[in-house]
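Input (structure):
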């Protein structure tokens, strides 16, 4: 069997003659349109690298004015939000549209498109853009290709890229855990100034079925973030989106336990002051529990400033601490009342035994003592008549004052964090 070797130049000439014959047959309705389109695509792919040198300066559009690059960004997934590092990892689709009149396309292509794979990145001019606030990223092409191009008969070029990005997000935790974080995606031109390339938004969106365990995706917005440097002005696009923290987790793990701990300490006001172990043990246990919760919060959000949850925990700890001071004051008052009661009993017994009654006016010290006894007796009599209680005066007052003060604090705190959340007071 004989084998003939065709020289390369002759082989190339025969191939283009074959392509020309097929286009002619298609025009005469001998070859189907799809087959002719396949032949056109093959001829374009074989000749695109010889059409022009892929640099921005050789494009005739740049001489008349800046080339407009229309950008569309679709966020399809947010993998994680790392609050200690102020970063988030997401997957996006990046679409870029532009016109390149230097590309030679088949005349019969019309509105149909030629799809090119990733191998044409170095043969076709493409805008040099980068994500300004990105600290890392990669193209996702483990199983399927992650980048491709399409070119139609009007020389419109479309590039699609699926990428994974690690972005920096300037988070502010002043209103934590009722905060709303605003993160951005900044896309900027790298090598071309505004004189040659201008970026414009076509669309910026978040996927509708995006779900996060700790956040809810809020509204999105777009803006121009063009910057001017010593080398010139570089076009920049910014897409912003809000991440609203879900508070249900913190209500169950922080707010409800801390409220219950504080309310338990109020039970101590009904325990007699003589029960020292019960009163002291209750307050100390509650204080240690709140401090443990505070340490847990500090390890979760490491900031150099006070956040809303820190204020809540400090006030709760303050209520427990003041409750311990109240017990000390009640103990002192109880001892004083016992001493005064003992003195009154002694005075009464001595008055019955004494036959001579001193009609001289009482001294100033005696007057103050009587007024003190009368004031204490009046307060005790009021609480006994109204509430039917016979107990230490300070405990009687604390049973109403502490719950009312704590309820007032809860109302003020809830109002402040709600206003700060919706008015973005801290931002």
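Output (sequence):
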């Amino acid at each position: 069997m004989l084998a003939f070797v065709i020289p390369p130049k002759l082989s190339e000439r025969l191939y283009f003659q074959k392509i020309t014959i097929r286009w002619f047959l298609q025009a005469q309705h001998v070859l189907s349109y799809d087959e002719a389109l396949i032949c056109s695509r093959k001829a374009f792919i074989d000749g695109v690298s010889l059409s022009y040198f892929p640099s921005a300066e050789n494009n005739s559009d740049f001489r008349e004015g800046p080339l407009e690059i229309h950008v569309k960004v679709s966020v399809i997934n947010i993998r994680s939000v790392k609050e200690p590092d102020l970063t988030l990892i997401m997957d996006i689709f990046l679409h870029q549209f532009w016109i390149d009149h230097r590309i030679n396309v088949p005349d019969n292509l019309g509105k149909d498109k030629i799809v090119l794979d990733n191998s044409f990145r170095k043969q076709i001019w493409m805008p040099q853009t980068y994500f300004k606030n990105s600290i890392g990223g990669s193209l996702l092409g483990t199983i399927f290709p992650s980048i491709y191009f399409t070119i139609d008969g009007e020389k419109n070029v479309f590039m699609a890229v699926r990428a994974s990005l690690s972005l920096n997000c300037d988070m502010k935790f002043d209103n934590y855990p009722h905060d709303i974080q605003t993160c951005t995606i900044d896309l900027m031109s790298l090598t071309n100034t505004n004189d040659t390339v201008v970026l414009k938004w076509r669309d910026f969106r978040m996927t509708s079925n995006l779900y996060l365990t700790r956040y809810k995706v809020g509204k999105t917005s777009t803006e121009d973030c063009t910057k001017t440097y010593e080398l010139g002005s570089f076009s920049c696009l910014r897409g912003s989106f809000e991440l609203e923290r879900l508070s249900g987790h913190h209500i169950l793990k922080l707010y409800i336990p801390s409220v219950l701990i504080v309310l338990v300490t109020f039970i101590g006001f009904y325990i007699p002051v003589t029960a020292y172990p019960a009163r002291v043990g209750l307050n100390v246990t509650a204080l240690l529990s709140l401090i443990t919760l505070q340490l847990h919060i500090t390890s979760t959000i490491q900031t150099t400033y006070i956040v809303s949850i820190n204020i809540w925990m400090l006030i709760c700890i303050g209520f427990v601490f003041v409750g311990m001071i109240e017990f000390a004051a009640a103990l002192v008052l109880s001892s004083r009342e016992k001493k005064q009661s003992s003195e009154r009993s002694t005075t009464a017994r001595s008055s019955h035994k004494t036959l001579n009654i001193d009609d001289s006016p009482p001294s100033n010290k005696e007057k103050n003592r009587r007024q003190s006894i009368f004031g204490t007796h009046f307060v005790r009599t009021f609480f006994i008549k109204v509430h039917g209680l016979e107990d230490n005066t300070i405990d009687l007052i604390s049973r109403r004052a502490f719950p009312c003060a704590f309820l007032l604090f809860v109302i003020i705190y809830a109002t402040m964090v709600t206003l700060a959340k919706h008015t973005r007071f801290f931002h």
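Notes: The two ends are 84 Å apart (CA to CA). The mean pLDDT is 77.
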